[in-house]
């Protein structure tokens, strides 16, 4: 033993025949430094081949003793001081590895020697490579540190030759020779030979040991360039570790995960500093990331499982809401708080002390950037996987993670309380350090949270607030169109009254059967004004273009001098006349760069999996700042297919689109993005299927109907759109094809277009009359099907029909308005085919009046409120339906010619003429019915003639036609004439010209 408590082993030389033999002992002098690596003896030696030599056993025991100095010290980084005895200062990397390996119990005996290097040796590129272990328990590492060397010493790029410096390990009848340069740098080369008589043991080793699996994949001599080959070489070894050959593992929710002490302690630390819902969130995020790694070969070859586990488990330390938490700062973002706490945890852990600084930095980056996906998705793969695993907990399975595996994790760690916990934490952050807490820009999000903010803050005591969100299809032409919104607002305000308030009882006394018309609702709102010091009403998404409706609303609400504040949000500004009349202040809201970054990151997050990791030379830097400038506060239509989610690279078309723009460009950015997207769809394999699906999503959005993949499946069949092999598309194909353009609710499967800009472009530029005509033809064909012919005789029967045919309700409801929007379209043949049986007319009318079927629970709830299965008018004939559609003269004539009775009455006593008379733009239908002999004096069950319907609901030309064919204007009821004066002043004026005395409406006395 020398002064360093190390054992000098005998170097080995090769005999001419290639068999190694011992050299004499080497004397210790100033040119020699020695390290001992402790052996981990495996219990997997083959019987009969264990080392039984007593001298060798004594040497092994001495080696075990020599390790004491190395494990009882404080680890530092590779260039830092060593607090205990170190045989050679330049061996700090190897010295740290000793302790690391001792903890892993994976090292065997090695000898390091330092020799003078001949000055004549030519330099060659050459980094540090270390391969250590015993044949039954091998562990591999690759390390390198490029450093400048002092003048007069040999450069670190020195080609090694046998005999310069030798490190020898003997294990049974094979050996490993390691040669390294330790002058001025820390470099080591590995060479491995087989003993001629070791073939049987080598085969066993190849079959059973880690070395065998590893050696199948590497050459006998390894020269590794750190910068180029480290990730590949070390990732190869990491893949073996991931398969459970080194790290201990356990099962969580049926998934095998790494189970080292630092991972166990990280999980415990997360639980200690998190609420239980957040703890479940980090567990789910970790497990989703593990599934993602398993599903992608590139990741499983590369990701450090400990780094991934620790980073994901500790990513929400910045959400420690406990009082006086040592983690939370007063002025840093919560992500930074969490990253700093995680780094401190690693550096203070007994295993973390030996982590490479790069891995510590990866954890820090992954936590600090996990909410900034526009950055994290372009970092190292370890950082990307952490961020994407976290995102999956909110957005659902992706990156090759199967739905059933995702569901198993959610079952083991339920997420029902996640939303409330996240909201509570964000509110807490907004309250404690609002300057570092991010916000959101979506108008509905803003308005909803504005109400919560008003109610929670109560800046003025007793403040009431309510909001109503208008859909695109909810247009407000008059005060009556605001009725539903005002009723909703009234209910919200009533719910905010103190428990002891008597106002609810007074409201019930004033309005029988709950709320009445719009005027009654406004009166109740004015009553509520006395119960609050201030009321804030938010109308989100109003139709700013309809001045008359808005003017009526503002007059009604602001008539009384109440403390009422009204906030209106819309896609366009109000008219100047409204602004001047009511003193409206306007604010233009745009998305922040942060919100745009999150939006862009979401597209990358959902991008299709591409396992290829591009070389730096193939990566094109994407000009994200230019994209932000182009967006100008708008959420441009960006789809996941424009990115690759592993390399996070944009495709050529998207990159070219962004690069072609400049601040001085005249490009219509929104139009350009939408056009590029549509061009991509049209060039795709299933363009017809995608465009048909998008047509119905746009059509539904405009008309207030929702669509699901099942509805689109039936629509595609009706359109005759099939796959290449002439089979119908599956629901999965439809959902996947639409996923780039629409959100799909995981529970109800309701689909909604992601981009309103794309919706407007499709409606105005793509879906022209050809699409509308194809929709009408397909709808007629669909409604002709025999499997839903005839009206159902009960609510349950209708529910089962709508459940089996989800497109039926939408098809029936949209047919009439679609025909009205395209009056020039000839559809006589389609109509005649559908109405061959009167039963098809009944089934159509019943479906058009029914509640839409989305799921059983909602349908039953609606039907319990009102049984709409019986709301349709019975006894309609094809001629009634043609009048209802405002059919062309040719179709009316065809129906009469085939024998349909022109005087047939429906169950309510109406003839086809009654129906045509009350349709505003159907005078051509009225004309042809009259020419075919329709009776102008026919009365319905209410005693009303076609003329009585026409003066209130019809048009002036229809009234003229009816009177010219003998309708008696003097027989009109006073009430009908009064309603005519209100609703149809042009018809009232015409009647006065005929001598009809119009009643005068009595005005209410002023108070």
From TrEMBL:
Annotated ANK repeat ranges: 874-907, 908-941, 942-974
InterPro entries: Ankyrin_rpt (IPR002110), Ankyrin_rpt-contain_sf (IPR036770), NPHP3-like_N (IPR056884)
Residue ranges occupied by any Nephrocystin 3-like N-terminal domain in the UniProt entry: 440-571
Keyword entries, A-Z: ANK repeat, Repeat
PANTHER family registered for this protein in UniProt: CYANAMIDE HYDRATASE DDI2-RELATED (PTHR35569:SF1)
Annotated protein name in UniProt: Ankyrin-2
Species in which this protein is naturally found: Fusarium acutatum
Top-level taxonomy: Eukaryota, Fungi, Dikarya, Ascomycota, Pezizomycotina
């Amino acid at each position: 033993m020398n002064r360093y408590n190390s054992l000098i082993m005998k170097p080995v030389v090769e005999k001419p025949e290639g068999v190694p033999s011992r050299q004499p002992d080497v004397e210790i002098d100033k040119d020699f430094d020695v390290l001992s690596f402790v052996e981990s003896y495996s219990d997997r030696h083959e019987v009969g081949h264990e080392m039984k030599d007593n001298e060798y056993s004594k040497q092994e025991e001495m080696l075990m003793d020599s390790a004491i100095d190395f494990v009882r010290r404080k680890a530092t980084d590779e260039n830092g001081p060593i607090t205990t005895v170190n045989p050679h200062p330049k061996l700090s990397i190897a010295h740290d590895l000793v302790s690391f390996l001792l903890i892993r119990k994976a090292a065997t005996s090695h000898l390091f020697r330092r020799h003078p290097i001949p000055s004549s040796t030519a330099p060659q590129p050459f980094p540090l490579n270390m391969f250590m272990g015993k044949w039954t328990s091998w562990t591999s590492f690759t390390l390198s540190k490029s450093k400048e060397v002092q003048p007069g010493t040999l450069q670190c790029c020195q080609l090694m030759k046998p005999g310069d410096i030798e490190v020898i390990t003997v294990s049974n009848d094979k050996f490993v020779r390691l040669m390294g340069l330790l002058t001025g740098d820390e470099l080591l080369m590995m060479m491995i030979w087989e003993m001629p008589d070791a073939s049987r043991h080598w085969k066993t080793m190849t079959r059973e040991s880690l070395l065998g699996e590893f050696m199948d994949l590497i050459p006998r001599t390894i020269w590794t360039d750190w910068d180029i080959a480290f990730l590949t070489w070390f990732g190869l070894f990491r893949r073996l570790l991931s398969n459970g050959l080194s790290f201990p593992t356990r099962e969580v929710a049926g998934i095998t995960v790494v189970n080292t002490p630092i991972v166990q302690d990280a999980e415990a630390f997360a639980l200690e500093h998190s609420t239980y819902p957040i703890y479940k969130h980090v567990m789910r995020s970790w497990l989703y990331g593990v599934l993602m790694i398993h599903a992608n070969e590139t990741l499983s070859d590369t990701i450090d499982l400990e780094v991934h586990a620790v980073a994901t488990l500790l990513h929400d330390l910045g959400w420690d809401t406990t009082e006086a938490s040592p983690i939370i700062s007063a002025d840093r973002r919560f992500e930074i708080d969490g990253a700093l706490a995680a780094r401190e945890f690693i550096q203070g852990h007994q295993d973390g002390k030996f982590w490479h600084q790069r891995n510590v930095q990866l954890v820090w980056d992954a936590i600090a950037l996990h909410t900034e996906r526009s950055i994290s998705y372009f970092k190292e793969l370890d950082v990307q996987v952490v961020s994407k695993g976290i995102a999956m907990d909110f957005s659902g399975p992706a990156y090759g993670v199967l739905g059933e595996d995702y569901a198993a994790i959610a079952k083991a760690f339920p997420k029902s309380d996640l939303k409330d916990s996240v909201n509570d934490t964000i509110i807490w952050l907004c309250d404690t350090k609002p300057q570092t807490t991010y916000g959101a820009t979506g108008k509905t999000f803003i308005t909803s949270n504005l109400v919560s903010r008003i109610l929670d803050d109560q800046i003025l005591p007793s403040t009431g607030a309510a909001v109503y969100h208008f859909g695109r299809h909810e247009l407000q032409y008059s005060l009556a169109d605001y009725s539903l919104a005002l009723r909703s607002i009234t209910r919200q305000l009533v719910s905010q009254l103190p428990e002891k308030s008597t106002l609810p009882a007074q409201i019930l006394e004033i309005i029988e059967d709950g709320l009445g018309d719009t005027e009654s609702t406004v009166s109740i709102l004015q009553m509520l004004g006395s119960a609050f010091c201030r009321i804030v009403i938010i109308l989100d998404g109003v139709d700013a273009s309809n001045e008359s409706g808005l003017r009526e609303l503002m007059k009604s609400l602001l008539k009384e001098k109440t403390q009422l504040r009204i906030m209106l949000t819309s896609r366009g500004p109000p008219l100047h006349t409204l602004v001047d009349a009511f003193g409206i202040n306007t604010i233009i809201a745009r998305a922040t760069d942060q919100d745009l970054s999150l939006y862009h990151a979401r597209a990358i997050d959902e991008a299709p999996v591409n396992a290829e990791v591009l070389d730096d030379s193939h990566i094109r830097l994407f000009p994200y700042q230019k994209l932000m400038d182009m967006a100008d506060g708008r959420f441009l239509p960006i789809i996941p297919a424009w990115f690759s989610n592993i390399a996070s690279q944009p495709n050529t078309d998207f990159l070219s689109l962004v690069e072609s723009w400049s601040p001085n460009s005249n490009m219509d950015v929104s139009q350009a993005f939408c056009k590029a997207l549509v061009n991509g769809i049209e060039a795709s394999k299933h363009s017809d299927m995608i465009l048909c699906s998008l047509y119905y999503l746009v059509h539904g959005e405009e008309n207030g109907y929702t669509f699901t993949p099942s509805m689109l499946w039936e629509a595609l069949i009706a359109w005759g759109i099939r796959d290449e092999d002439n089979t119908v598309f599956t629901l999965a194909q439809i959902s996947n094809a639409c996923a780039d353009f629409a959100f799909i609710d995981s529970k109800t499967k309701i689909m909604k277009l992601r981009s309103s800009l794309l919706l407007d472009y499709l409606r105005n530029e793509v879906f022209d009359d050809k699409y509308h005509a194809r929709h009408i033809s397909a709808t007629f064909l669909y409604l002709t099907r025999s499997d839903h012919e005839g009206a159902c005789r009960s609510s349950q029967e209708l529910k089962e029909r709508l459940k089996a045919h989800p497109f039926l309700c939408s098809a029936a409801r949209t047919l009439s308005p679609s025909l009205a929007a395209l009056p020039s379209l000839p559809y006589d043949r389609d109509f005649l085919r559908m109405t061959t049986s009167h039963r098809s007319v009944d089934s159509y009318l019943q479906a058009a009046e029914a509640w839409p079927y989305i799921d059983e629970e909602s349908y039953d709830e609606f039907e319990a409120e009102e049984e709409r299965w019986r709301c349709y008018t019975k006894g309609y004939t094809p001629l009634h339906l043609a009048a209802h559609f405002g059919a062309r003269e040719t179709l009316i004539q065809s129906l009469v010619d085939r024998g349909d009775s022109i005087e047939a009455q429906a169950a309510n006593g109406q003839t086809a003429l009654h129906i045509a008379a009350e349709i505003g733009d159907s005078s051509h239908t009225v004309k042809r019915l009259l020419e075919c002999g329709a009776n102008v004096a026919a009365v319905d069950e209410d005693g009303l003639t076609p003329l009585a319907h026409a003066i209130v609901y019809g048009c002036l030309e229809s009234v003229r036609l009816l009177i010219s064919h003998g309708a008696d204007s003097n027989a009109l009821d006073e009430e009908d004439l009064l309603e005519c004066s209100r609703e149809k002043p042009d018809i009232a004026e015409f009647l006065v010209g005929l001598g009809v005395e119009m009643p005068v409406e009595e005005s209410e006395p002023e108070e």
